[in-house]
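[Discussion] Sanity-checking designs against the backbone

I'm trying to build intuition for which residues belong where. Below is a structure token string of 290 positions. I'd appreciate it if someone posts a full sequence so I can compare it with mine line by line.
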């Protein structure tokens, strides 16, 4: 992946950097985590073993307390395992606070720990702070991973900043960024859900032109958007192309088209498509009824 030094990123990185330290301090100064750790350390048995085995955040907090008190201190890999476990529990603010405490201890970070932090900020709705972390990575000479940019693009889409996400995507692809299926699907879904149907169709064609074959989920996203827009003929044309490519339509594909046909008064065509679906051994779904 090419060096990340784009003009598009600079405004986000600079503006977020001004407030990031204040945000971290406000979370770190909260008594919530300290209270949890103190209470459960005094009243629970010591937690050992693999962080992935935790089923609640309290156990993870106990282990974190043990790790930061341990000497020599555990490696960044061990901290990443713990932070990743807490992320899966969706306690994003707690992870941000832990990250700040780890920084104060002078523990090193790697691209994975930075990615965890970027993800937490995006999940908390602070995409600007996510870009600030990206700036911090660049400053420290840590090369961002494809996951870093994927997370930021996903965060932009979740906040409805689809144009910004698409522009960032285009810029990064031009610089050698190799997006994965999740990134393509995220932008495609964002364009479709925000009514940018024409742009979603172009994006789908771009995927094909770049040799990245969309799956049925990607096609369904665009077909659904076309149907909701009232462009049934275009949706049916895309549906035909899907079958020509040897991609098997699923219940979602048929459901979108049948709904659109009924809404346009094309009951006979809808019935024909319903029979085709049954002939292809695709199970009926409650969605077809409405």
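Best answer:
Here's mine. Compare freely.
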């Amino acid at each position: 992946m090419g060096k990340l030094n784009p003009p598009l990123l600079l405004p986000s990185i600079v503006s977020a950097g001004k407030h990031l330290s204040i945000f971290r301090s406000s979370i770190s100064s909260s008594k919530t985590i300290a209270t949890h750790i103190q209470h459960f350390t005094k009243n629970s048995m010591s937690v050992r073993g693999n962080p992935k085995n935790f089923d609640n955040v309290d156990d993870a907090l106990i282990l974190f307390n043990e790790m930061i008190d341990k000497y020599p201190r555990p490696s960044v890999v061990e901290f990443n395992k713990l932070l990743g476990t807490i992320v899966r529990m969706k306690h994003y603010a707690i992870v941000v606070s832990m990250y700040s405490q780890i920084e104060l201890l002078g523990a090193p970070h790697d691209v994975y720990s930075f990615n965890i932090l970027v993800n937490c900020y995006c999940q908390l709705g602070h995409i600007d702070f996510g870009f600030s972390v990206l700036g911090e990575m660049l400053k420290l000479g840590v090369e961002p991973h494809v996951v870093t940019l994927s997370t930021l693009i996903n965060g932009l889409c979740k906040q409805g900043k689809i144009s910004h996400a698409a522009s960032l995507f285009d810029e990064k692809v031009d610089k050698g960024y190799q997006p994965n299926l999740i990134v393509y699907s995220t932008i495609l879904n964002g364009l479709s859900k925000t009514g940018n149907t024409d742009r979603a169709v172009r994006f789908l064609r771009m995927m094909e032109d770049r040799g990245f074959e969309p799956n049925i989920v990607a096609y369904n996203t665009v077909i659904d958007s076309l149907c909701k827009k009232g462009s049934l003929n275009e949706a049916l044309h895309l549906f035909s192309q899907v079958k020509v490519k040897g991609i098997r339509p699923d219940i979602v594909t048929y459901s979108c088209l049948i709904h659109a046909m009924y809404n346009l008064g094309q009951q006979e065509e809808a019935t024909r498509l319903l029979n085709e679906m049954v002939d292809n051994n695709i199970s009926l779904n409650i969605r077809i009824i409405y």
